[in-house]
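Notes from the pairing session

We agreed to fold both candidates in a single pass and log them together. This is the raw record for the first candidate, unedited. Please don't reformat it; downstream parsing expects exactly this layout.

Candidate A
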Amino acid sequence: MDTETQASMTPLLPGQSVVIHTRELRKVYRSGFWFNQKNQTLNNCSLDIYEGETFGLLGQNGAGKTTLLKILLGIVRPSSGNGMLLGRPLGDRTVKHRVGYLPENPYFYDYLTGWELLEYAAGLFQLPSAVQRQRIPELLDLVGLARSAAQKKQLRQYSKGMLQRIGVAQALINDPDVVFLDEPMSGLDPLGRFQIREIIQSLKTQGKTIFFNSHVLSDVEAICDRVGILAQGELICLGSIHELLGTTDLYRVRVQNANPEVLRQWMPDLEFKDGFWQGHLKGQPQDFFSSLRLMKAQLISMSLARPSLEEFFIQQLQQRGIFKSQ
């Protein structure tokens, strides 16, 4: 049984529902002077996303991630296949008020201030003025934008990180049940990425369903319940981090200023590399920590000895001949 089949059989929790459902979605674009050239960007994509789940979709540029997201939002129609969003067929307008969306490269009216943009977005959802006065300050606080700056500063003066934050805020103005984020970490510095991760985590605690595309695999690994990998339009892997990467009780450890003879009792494969002693821990971590304290050594890092999501991603592409290492 492959990983995708296993993941599709994951049982629902009591009261949990399927929020996004697709079966064999396919999208073919036509190009050329006579529109006689076919470019298939999505092929037989079947996927279920559950209520309250944070789902990350991975893939190279051109893999079909944005195409899938736009089909789910009803922006693009599939060539074949079908799906449901919040219990309604894809493209149904009656669910739009329950959905939030941040495109990969959003264009905002840059003469507006951040506050005015949120007022404009709230107007599209016909939110009452009283609700707007409460909702807008809450969102500005959530995304880490000062209210004074949002009220006075035009969007043309915003940095990339500030634009991403106000973009997330406008995606949440209607208090949506499902939030779609297309490359929300794109172009952000480490602090900005951390703040976006914190926002996604806070949305999860509110019971929101989050679907986002990303190239930053470490962020996906840290915050997603499940991930999927798209390659050349096909969903080649789908499952939780543990299902894809495996579980292990073996730890990879890096230590500094320690006695190697003592360390070797804990790490038979001990080696010195890049100024640190490192190896795989054999024994109970708590006992190992006590030994380090006696030696007055410093624990630099400790992680499960399994491949990272990035390593797994590259491995999957290599196995299918999509990517070849130099």
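Candidate B (folded immediately after A)
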Amino acid sequence: MLRVLPHTMDIPSFSGDLRVMAVAYQDNAFGSAEAHIKVADPIVISSALPRFTSPGDTVYVPVTFSNTTKQLITATLQPETEGQIKIVNTPNTSIRVEPGKEERILYKVVAGAMSGTGSFTMKVKNGNESYRDKTEITIRPPASLQKQNGSGSIKGGAVAEINMKTGFIPSSASAELYISKSPLVNFADHLNYLLDYPHGCAEQTISTAFPQLYFADLAKAISNKPGYTINVQTNVQAGISKIISLQHYNGGIVTWPGSSMSNNWTSVYAAHFLTEASKAGYQVNASALEKLLKFIQKNIKEKNTEEIWYYDSSNKTVIRKSPAKDIFYSLYVLALNNKADKSSMNYYKSKFKELAIDSKYLLACTYLAIGDRKTYNELLPKAFEGERSISSTGGSFYSYIRDMAMALNALLHSDPDHPQVGELVRNLSKELKTL
């Protein structure tokens, strides 16, 4: 005898068709059955609220009332809002819906000036019965994260006023103020960006650790993570270990763990970082650095070229094939390690006109690094001008700012009192402030 037992279960707020399935078995026999159940309140409420809105937006919310019965329904309406939205019009407070028909009422809803969340609830009362439908909405800024920064100076004993008005949404805005005797504080925002950079390829790892060799105090001061204190020594040493772990069997540095090919530019960048870190007293695996320098020496002999895209002095786009920029960075780093490749230096000296502007600076400073001031004076450009690189995401990853910084770094290290140092610093500072 088949006995049917009642079963009760809770379901979310729902209107539509439910399929109920049952499976039974006994010994080696089994069976199944299914049935469709219509689920609907006498009045089905459908609120067409958007998925999200922005502060200050106005949206029109159509609310549809469907009569699923065979009788006329007269009901009272009670719309409510919570959080960062509110209703600003006053439509009907009651509604009549014919059997099997539907009616629609339009509500004008305005989002507040703050970001956050809100909800729209429609309550319907029909005699002794009541029904409700609640829809939540997110109020979020219309644009992605934006930053504004500025800098300035103040003389001793003077008073300065800082205007912190930005026009940003108050609930989403925050501000930081750095005060220092060093002009390097002008670039605290850029250093902070590097310290918090979320990715970790070889180039990014070096870029995060390298500046901490020189700006340890500033790096500690600008850390803005709650409960987190920057340990510069630990960061730099961890960066060194990470780079060594990315060394390929041929001595070069791969971009990501598991990569099968080393990257020429990143390898030179790594060698420069490891060289400076060693000079600063950090533990650097001497054999790993030696192997890396041999890779660089071998790579120079291949005389690689790359396409250089830049704007000329008339702002016209120019594309030309030039000796690869990593070659001159390599020659410079080798000279810093007392491994100057004079034959390659002289070869590219004979092709000096073909070089990119930053390569000219690096080659000139390489000669000075080995004590040849005469050739340095002959080769050093009169100014960093004539071409403005268009940023590249391949090859030597060049950009106008990076090229200028490379030239400044080499000149500052080789000839810090040269008049061009001040000019390059001023120009580079202006460019950085445009980022």
